[in-house]
Design a protein that fits this description.
By secondary structure, the protein is of the alpha+beta class. It contains 28 helices and ten strands. Helix 1 runs antiparallel to helix 2, helix 8 packs antiparallel against helix 27 and helix 9 runs parallel beside helix 25. The two termini are 36 Å apart.
Length: 596
């Protein structure tokens, strides 16, 4: 009965993950609660994920990564790219990968990609290359780089903890670096050769203005308040113009003087010109209801619109919703976005979709790209928020550049202390966090914003499922079924089978969930067939990072989806052959390097 119940919970979890009824971390917590309610795990086992060494280590690594990025230590590579950018697109991709891959081995790859997106955009503009040719390789290179070391991804750390639980000890920091290095080089050669041939110029190299890119011409209009308008004598707030209609007033011009945001409490007079964002239909409705006049050039030219939105006081920019953002799932109206950030969202790009109507009602998703207009000072505030990433170079004044050398030294100390087995990785990482706080690299309040809590809760919620699988005998049952197949396969095909199964589970669930389910199975199969358990565990660990085929399979893919102007098919076109290549060579390399 326990096996039936456990497998039923697992099946329901698979369905919930596939249909995404709730965020994955909430689904994982519900799984834990259900397991406790059915008595499949004890309450102590149910909450053990929060105190698991893998969970704590991952949390500490997020904070250490934030410390390094907060000092701007990675920004130094910008000058390298600008100076030694290479002559061809292939050379540019390879150089970028050689830089990004090793960095991703030690710093969370989500943070690395967040830093490099604006760097690569500036680089591509100066080099006259479409950013579409570079951003997808940036994401893929960061994924490949994460397989170089134990601390490259949270998945590696979780796999190490499962290895220890299975009786084979934790992985060392550089235990699979040789394998990761070969795979990174092979992947970079593939990306350098095939990206220019498979990925079209989704964004033009001549760098269209943002108003052109978001097709705003029909959505930004100048209107004049007539002598008989009901708006006269009222403020924008009391007129409820923005609340009742799907528009945003971007600027108010009174007697030739421009008044930028905030203008909600400025009194409207006859003859005032309002620059509004809204569809033609909505503007015509306001003309009818509020007696305003639409200026003759209702449709701006690209140049005039760009000049209108970018003034001495105001600017337009792109802002990316990050994966740990508290804005996800909320609407702009619920968030009171304009009031909170003193900036207005003009449009939303969600993958291939461009949203310009009813913006206040759109629920924000991870990876959404917001076109934002507001005072230049507001963009300085947006640069410092943990919820959003402004796609432009951060001002040096917002970075603690004088602490950069100390942040790098602390991270090196954490790595070396663990690599030479002085202290466990969890202890060294937590020690590094405390030292960063004492040295002023991070402020105490910043450490909470540095942690990807969705990953932490996902790990903590799924670990009890692994415990239930072991206790109930479900893992042993599945292993017995796989053994019937395994006795007829060679070592290479056993590794390949586990690699493919893990890749499929990664696409359906997440990389952490796939590792949690497959490594215990791999250990049991290895022991029964008397093959090297580390070979099977490495196959599962590397397969869990095999997320190249879709923009939603891995966080970094989602992050570059909008900025690169990609279509869904682009990831399939470039990512599928890369996934097949990795599926073929990784098991062979594991056998060559570690035996079977």
């Amino acid at each position: 009965m326990d096996i039936i119940l456990t497998l039923s919970v697992l099946t329901l979890a698979l369905i919930a993950f596939i249909f995404e009824w709730l965020p994955v971390d909430i689904t994982a917590l519900i799984i834990t609660i259900v397991l406790m309610l059915f008595g499949l795990v004890t309450p102590e086992e149910g909450i053990s994920g929060f105190g698991n060494t893998a969970t704590i280590t991952v949390m500490a690594m997020f904070i250490l990564s934030a410390g390094v990025t907060r000092t701007g230590a990675i920004q130094v590579v910008r000058d390298l790219l600008m100076k030694w950018g290479g002559k061809t697109i292939s050379q540019k991709i390879f150089l970028m990968g050689v830089i990004v891959g090793p960095i991703s081995a030690f710093i969370n790859n989500t943070a690395v990609v967040a830093i490099f997106i604006p760097i690569v955009e500036e680089w591509s503009e100066k080099q006259g290359v479409s950013v579409s040719k570079l951003l997808m390789p940036l994401s893929f290179a960061s994924i490949l780089g994460g397989t170089l070391t134990l601390i490259g991804t949270s998945t590696n750390i979780l796999a190490s903890g499962l290895s220890q639980k299975g009786g084979y000890g934790e992985f060392s920091v550089f235990q699979f670096t040789g394998l990761g290095a070969i795979i990174l080089v092979v992947g970079l050669f593939y990306l350098a050769f095939f990206t220019p041939r498979l990925i079209p110029n989704r964004k033009k190299a001549e760098n269209d203005s943002l108003s052109q890119s978001y097709e705003l011409n029909d959505y930004v209009t100048e209107v004049v308040v007539s002598e008989t308008s009901s708006l006269i004598g009222k403020t924008l707030r009391t007129s409820e113009l923005q609340r009742k209609y799907d528009i945003d007033v971007l600027e108010l011009i009174h007697e030739g003087i421009y008044f930028p945001q905030p203008i909600a409490d400025r009194t409207i007079s006859a003859g005032d010109i309002l620059i509004v964002r809204g569809s033609r239909e909505v503007v015509l409705q306001i003309k009818e209801d509020r007696e305003i006049e639409i200026l003759p050039d209702i449709k701006f030219s690209d140049e005039s619109l760009d000049a209108e939105l970018n003034t001495e006081q105001d600017k337009v920019g792109e802002v990316l919703i990050l994966s740990n953002s508290r804005l996800i799932g909320s609407t702009l109206r619920d968030l009171r976005f304009r009031q909170r950030y003193n900036a207005t969202v003009l449009a939303i790009r969600r993958g291939e979709e461009l949203i310009r109507d009813r913006l206040g009602r759109v629920k924000l998703n991870f990876g959404d790209l917001l076109l934002v207009q507001g005072p230049k000072q507001s963009f300085l505030g947006l640069q410092t928020t943990r919820e959003l990433l402004v796609l432009e170079q951060k001002d040096a004044e917002n970075l603690r550049e004088d602490k950069a050398i100390y942040a790098i030294a602390i991270c090196l100390g954490v790595i070396l202390a663990s690599a030479f087995n002085f202290i466990p990785i969890m202890v060294s990482a937590l020690t590094g966090v405390i030292i960063m706080i004492f040295m002023g690299i991070l402020k105490p309040g910043e450490i909470y914003g540095a942690v990807r809590w969705d990953v932490i809760f996902l790990l903590a919620g799924l670990i009890p499922l692994g415990i239930a699988m072991d206790k109930s005998g479900a893992t042993a049952l599945l292993a017995d079924q796989l053994l019937m197949l395994g006795t007829h396969l060679s070592g290479y095909w056993i590794l390949t089978f586990f690699y493919i199964m893990t890749s499929i589970l990664t696409a359906i669930l997440s990389n952490n969930a796939a590792v949690l389910l497959m490594i215990p199975l791999g250990i049991q199969i290895a022991e029964s067939l008397e093959i090297n358990p580390f070979s099977l565990m490495f196959a599962v660990t590397f397969a869990a990072s095999n997320s190249f085929m879709t923009p939603i399979g891995y966080q970094t893919n989602t992050m570059v989806y909008g900025p690169g102007g990609y279509k869904f098919i682009d990831f399939i076109r470039l990512g599928t052959p890369l996934s097949i290549l990795m599926t073929v060579i990784t098991p062979a390399l594991i056998i060559f390097l570690y035996g079977i």
